[in-house]
Amino acid sequence: MTETESTTDAFDRESVRSASRIAIAALALVGVLYLFTLLPGVDRLVPLTPVTFAAVASAVVTVAVVALLLFAAPKVASLTRTALHRTDAADHVERIAENAGALAYWLVVLAAVLVAHRGLAGAVVPLIDGFAWAYDAAFLVASFVPLVFVVARLTVTVDPLSELVADRVSGSESAGDDPTEDADGPGTDADGAEPSAGDDPGESADAPTDADGPTAIDAAGSQGHSIGERWGVDDESGDAHDKSAADEGAADESADDSTSS
């Protein structure tokens, strides 16, 4: 593993750990607030104020949760970009990853604004009883800022996202075609040349080659002739030996006859 890959893995792990820690802390705060609202007497008013103890506790937890969301927004954007980033991807894919990261960032900011509006209402609105509309108007203006950025990022993501969909669809259709039939055709061989009319694959496969054809037959015939000639020579030499022995016997008999006479 190279140094760049190890740094990227460590950065991704650190981002995941930070984002998960923030999410767990926010959920823990919400759980504690819910348990606090179950306590007796928390719905009573704080002395000399029109605000209840539960509203004050909700405002404190809301401020903490909003701070955690704003702190987590860059981490969420980084994780989104890392999840969609590809080293060998096309330009429109890189634009989608960048826009998705920014979109995730502004969505988290918008969520923080909405949480603040809902959680602070119980402690702020009773204090400005006659100007509750100003409270809503302030948060309406504040929520417009991240909403405008969300719409802008969605607008610039439409074009590269449509290119990605077109690439995926056209790529799947191309994968369904047979590349061998398109390139060579059904009547061509592996080298791209059409077989000639006189070529018979069966004949070429069954015809004997020089290794096991006439050469082998000639060699067997030559071997047979040499064996026959050798045996023929042996037969002739045996007949000559018998003939000489018969001549010697006849000579001996004629000598005996002459001696006796």
The separation of the N and C termini measures: 125 Å
Mean pLDDT: 73
How many helical elements? Answer: 7
Strand content: under 5%
The biggest sheet, with number of strands, parallel, antiparallel or mixed sense and barrel status, is: none
Level of helix content?
over 70%
Q: In total, how many beta strands?
A: 0
SS class: mainly alpha
Oligomer: single chain
Poorly predicted tracts of residues: 1-10, 201-237
Shape: elongated
SSE sequence, one letter per element: HHHHHHH
Rg, Å, rounded: 52 Å
Report on this model:
- Helix 1 (3-37) runs antiparallel to helix 2 (53-84), helix 2 runs antiparallel to helix 3 and helix 3 (91-124) packs antiparallel against helix 4 (132-176).
- The protein is elongated and about 155 Å long.
- 78% of the residues lie in helices and 0% in strands.
- With 261 residues, it is mainly alpha-helical.
- The chain contains seven helices and no strands.
Secondary structure layout plus pairing:
Layout: H1 3-37, H2 53-84, H3 91-124, H4 132-176, H5 179-183, H6 201-206, H7 214-260
What's this, in brief?
This protein has 261 residues and is mainly α.
Keyword list:
mainly alpha; 7 helices; 261 residues; 78% helix; disordered N terminus
